[in-house]
What we know:
The chain contains four helices and six strands; from the N terminus they run H-H-E-E-E-H-E-H-E-E.
Amino acid sequence: MPELVRIETGSFVQPWTRDQFLSEISKSLPTLYVIQTVRAGSLLGYICFWVIADEVQMLNLAVHPDYRRQGVGRSLLMFLLNRSREEKASTVFLEVRPSNQAALTLYRSLGFKTLYRRPRYYAAEGEDALVMERSLDEI
Length: 139
């Protein structure tokens, strides 16, 4: 848990707290998955999502700064898309800051499209969110 929280606080302006992670882990179906190194067991990144009926809502994705731009985020998103298909979901949704160009580039490369803008979604800074969608019919 400490490693997870360190990556989170190093990745986001409004990071999840330890209690928020514990809440996700305690749900009846696991929704938090991590990638870690085999030898050292170091946490490389994680993804958190909900499966609701035939839709998936990605809640959180972060990669340790030392492992960014090495395919970890892409692997986590591919896991999410494959898992979503196994769950018979038809669509994956996520929110992203328009200023997060690295994330936008990754999401678009995997077929996510912007649906609309949510004004002032990130309340602390007043930044909008882009709501993105990925149809699973395309997989």
